[in-house]
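User: For my dataset I need records formatted as: sequence, then structure tokens, nothing else. Please produce one.
Assistant:
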Amino acid sequence: MYVIYDSKTGEIVHTHTEVDAHGNHLEIPLESLYTVLNPSIDRSTIAVARIKTPIEQPASQGKFFIDPESRKLAFREDQGRPGAGTIAPSEKMKEHRH
């Protein structure tokens, strides 16, 4: 799976994956990823990360983002809930930049 995100804030703006007839994930040229983006997204501030491991939705409410410092996938719980603001980075990610 590819995650396209704002390189300054870490906000995920698009995710994309393609599979073959057998369910195997396909590698996609970076140029192809940019063609699927909404034209309103500022391409000068985005980066692409390839996530190679399956992502499981945490039991708590929150959202995934890319930590701008570590460039790793992370999860932040919603404010006002126990553990709010904690981040659990993923170790298995390959970083790509356009």
